[in-house]
């Protein structure tokens, strides 16, 4: 376990909402949700994963099991036993790994723009090749290349400040941390068979125009998790929480308010 940088905002006596960022981002991607849900009475915790943001990098390989253990350790230190756990992209896969390791601690789950299957052999090779490239070249060129898939091209044109924010967040990521995570994800398990065993309320959210994890991937998760709710956010790509935060927050708020003995209503 490593010491993670994190945000911890809102009512310390409120229900905990824990948000896990994707690759190659950091906890700042959740700022619209942190602000919204702390005002709604939730205690919102958003860590920087090992090797991202202000958390130290571990060279080599970081498996999803390690990320999950880091999160459990952080929450232990904060005295948070049960919580709603959400993640986007790689963060969603870490949520699934957390559920595999400690399902009794998770009250409900948000799986955003993610997929459950293991990588194909081609996908594994691509991740390992990209890891080497990032170590060799750094993050700047990669950030420029993938930006039009992270947020929709129309958003890049109409909201240049958001486009810069997303690009700079990616470009500022540690190449060592990103490479270690890519190598670890290449070896992740297939979570598809675990989905039917999820017994907590689950919200599946996806951007309508997401190319990395398309709507079809979200439907597979929603169809396998008992009684899961699927929400498609129109006119967004891989980061609907930033492209259309009001729409994202609305569907998440509706989900949270419907939880048994729910808390944190506005």
TrEMBL record:
Matching Pfam families: Abhydrolase_1
GO terms of molecular function: hydrolase activity
Domain (AB hydrolase-1) ranges: 16-245
Single GO cellular component term: membrane
Protein name (database record): Hydrolase
PANTHER family from the UniProt entry: AB HYDROLASE SUPERFAMILY PROTEIN YCLE, MONOACYLGLYCEROL LIPASE
Keyword set includes Nucleotide-binding: no
Keywords: Hydrolase
Gene3D superfamilies per UniProt: alpha/beta hydrolase
């Amino acid at each position: 376990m490593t010491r993670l940088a994190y945000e911890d905002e809102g009512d310390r006596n409120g229900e905990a909402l824990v948000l896990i960022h994707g690759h190659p981002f950091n906890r700042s991607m959740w700022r619209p949700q942190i602000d919204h849900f702390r005002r709604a009475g939730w205690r919102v915790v958003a860590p920087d994963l090992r090797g991202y943001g202000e958390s130290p990098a571990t060279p080599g390989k970081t498996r999803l099991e390690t990320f999950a253990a880091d999160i459990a350790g952080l929450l232990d230190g904060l005295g948070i036993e049960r919580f709603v756990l959400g993640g986007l992209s790689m963060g969603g896969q870490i949520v699934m790994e957390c559920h595999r390791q400690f399902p009794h601690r998770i009250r409900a789950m948000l799986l955003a723009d993610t997929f459950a299957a293991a990588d194909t052999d081609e996908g594994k090779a691509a991740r390992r090749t990209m890891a080497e490239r990032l170590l060799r070249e750094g993050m700047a060129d990669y950030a420029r290349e993938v930006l039009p898939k992270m947020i929709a091209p129309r958003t890049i044109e109409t909201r240049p400040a958001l486009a810069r924010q997303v690009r700079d967040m990616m470009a500022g990521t540690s190449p060592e941390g990103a490479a270690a995570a890519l190598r670890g994800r290449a070896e992740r398990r297939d979570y598809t068979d675990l989905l039917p065993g999820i017994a907590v309320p689950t919200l599946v959210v996806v951007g309508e125009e997401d190319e990395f994890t398309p709507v079809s991937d979200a439907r597979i998760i929603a169809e396998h998790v008992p009684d899961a709710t699927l929400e498609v956010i129109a006119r967004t790509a891989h980061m609907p929480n930033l492209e259309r935060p009001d729409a994202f927050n609305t569907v998440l708020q509706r989900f949270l308010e419907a939880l048994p003995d729910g808390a944190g209503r506005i």
